[in-house]
Amino acid sequence: MKYWVWILGLYSSVGLAAEQSISGIIDVRASYTDGITSYVDGGLGKFRFNPDGQLSLAQMGLSYNIDWDSPLSAHVVANAYWDGVRDNIGITEAYLKYKGLPWDNGLRLSGKLGFLYPEISMENIATAWSSPYTLTYSGINSWLGEEVRHIGAQMSLDYLGKFHDSRHDFTFSAELFQNNDTTGAMLAWHGWTNSSRQTLAQEKLPLSELPSLDGGSLSSQAKESDPFLELDDRIGYHVKTQWRMQGLGRLEVGYYDNDADTRIVKEGQYAWLTQFVHIGTKWRLPYNIELIAQYMKGNTLMQSPYGMDIVDNGFDSAFILFSHRWQKHRLSARFEDFSVTDNDLTLDDDNSEEGQGMTVSYSYQFSKGWFMQMEYNRIDSERAARAEQGYSKDLVEQQWQLASRYYF
């Protein structure tokens, strides 16, 4: 809530004429999951919902925007969830945005300042960081929604081709940030997931009862990870370049480094050095088919205060999504491959995994803003740590969902 108060206070102090708007999403969902206890509930299940069937408020998102009579605007996004596991309400984004007018040479400056996502996702483009394509996010975007957010300042420089009779636009952006020193902990200890839940600003995330965490070599780790915590006062960075062809699509490449000091630990919260490269493309194909593909590869490292490697994981994930929209219908299919490679010598903490996922989703628009959506998810994965909890190392998990989604 402090981000909300901060932005509203700034708004009142500026004293400029402004337009205010509110948009939102209400997603009521029936689901049936064939798997094991969800990672949201401290398990090693790959889906958001626990086994068997349930009816839930999967998302109630609200986006409040103020556009001043200037290049400045302010945005606050809140989300609420009622799913019987972690019912809660809170802020998920809160930032100021600057978007300048283009100069005569086609260059334009823009920027953001506040509690925000790094600009990586190509799926989650709808209100309150929801996805218009599927009910569940890809592994990459599920991880972003869980623990890859921060307080930062981002600046972008656009080169607009239309000023030079060209269809090609280019963007370079750079971001400096803090409050993300534990990023990587959840990816290490429960692996990749397919979720539809964003961590709220005040939330902490439960860790599974792994041998290393429950009386083992990592028992000094807190039982919950605080994902938006600043421990070392160091500044991370994210850089990205993008090429766009107007009317057809875009390609982008970026690099993220939280520059954490891995010797720092406070009240059971360790700093994780997390670095990754991401590549993505979004393209309009013939027959009104939209193609989205993203790839992420990186490493996350946790050490003792004496500099000894405790958790050292390489990770990668990729997906390709096809979506076709016609009249009131949309059909989307996504295919994924993911892995975590355990590179350390901690014997009671095997974080290695590999797997593949598939999602098929169909939506029908009843009226303006109101959609009915059906979805099937399947993840076939191998994770050694599951055997420590009495489950099979190799596991196929499935999920069926029916949602009524209303955008306003």
Account of the protein in words:
The protein is mainly β and 408 residues long. The strands form three sheets. It has a 16-stranded antiparallel beta barrel with strand order 1-2-3-4-5-6-7-10-11-14-15-16-17-18-19-20. Strands 8-9 form a two-stranded antiparallel sheet. It has a two-stranded antiparallel ribbon with strand order 12-13. The mean pLDDT is 95. It is globular and about 60 Å long. The protein is built from three helices and 20 strands. 7% of the residues lie in helices and 54% in strands.
List keywords for this structure.
single chain; 408 residues; mainly beta; 16-stranded antiparallel barrel; two-stranded antiparallel sheet
At a glance:
This protein is mainly beta and 408 residues long.
Low-confidence stretches: none
Element pattern in H and E: HEEEEEHEEHEEEEEEEEEEEEE
Overall pLDDT score:
95
Biggest sheet features: 16 strands, antiparallel, barrel
Structural class: mainly beta
Taking all Cα atoms into account, the compactness measure Rg is: 21 Å
Beta-strand fraction estimate: over 45%
Oligomer description? single chain
Q: Based on DSSP secondary structure assignment, what is the total number of beta strands? A: 20
Shape: globular
Strands in their spatial order, largest beta sheet? 1-2-3-4-5-6-7-10-11-14-15-16-17-18-19-20
CA-to-CA gap between the ends?
23 Å
- How many H/I helices? 3
Work out the helicity level. under 10%
Q: Mind sketching the topology for me?
A:
Blueprint: H1 2-14, E1 18-34, E2 52-68, E3 72-82, E4 88-99, E5 107-116, H2 139-147, E6 150-159, E7 168-178, H3 185-190, E8 205-206, E9 224-225, E10 236-245, E11 249-257, E12 265-266, E13 269-270, E14 272-285, E15 289-303, E16 309-326, E17 329-342, E18 353-367, E19 370-383, E20 394-407
Antiparallel strand pairs: 1-2, 1-20, 2-3, 3-4, 4-5, 5-6, 6-7, 7-10, 8-9, 10-11, 11-14, 12-13, 14-15, 15-16, 16-17, 17-18, 18-19, 19-20
